[in-house]
Amino acid sequence: MNNLVTYRKQFGDFLFSADGQFDGDKGSDGSDFVNAGVRYKTDFIYIAAAFYNKELEDGTDENTVGVTLSKSFDSLYLAAAYQDIDKDDADGSTLDVVASYAINESYKVKLGVSQYDDGGNDVTSKTYNAYNTTLEWHLTPMFRTFVEYQKTDYDYRETNDQIMIGMRYNFDYKF
């Protein structure tokens, strides 16, 4: 990227990261941004926080603050993430909480709850609460299939129920 500066430094279990793009009077409008974060990662826990500021093309700023936390308990994995997004006149947020449990080497069940608030308060808003349950079948370490049910309960729209069936193959190719 043009005029991009990146800095990363590891201090034991802490990682600090900062990125910025500054074009001054050159380049396209809305390309200036600053992103900075810190992560603490051990075998016990994972915690991270970040701040993002971007100058938008209309001259306003978008500011986002996010935090995440995850923890493994043998076969059980728990994680949560929160973002606060301030963009122009809208102040929105997201919250995601997930749990995953490995039943055995072949099967895993996942549960998730999400809350999305776009800051709107009328029929144009896409604010919702979502809930999902997934069952994965790991045929090999690289290939898995899944069936998932998701319910999305919108504040200003009809509730949406979905059943998804799919497969995933992980490629491990090194250049």
Automatic annotation (TrEMBL):
Transmembrane segments: none
Porin domain location: 2-155
Origin: domain of life: Bacteria
Pfam families from the UniProt entry: Porin_4
SUPFAM superfamilies from the UniProt entry: Porins (SSF56935)
InterPro entries: Gram_neg_porin_domain (IPR033900), Porin_dom_sf (IPR023614)
Protein name: Porin domain-containing protein
Organism: Shewanella glacialipiscicola
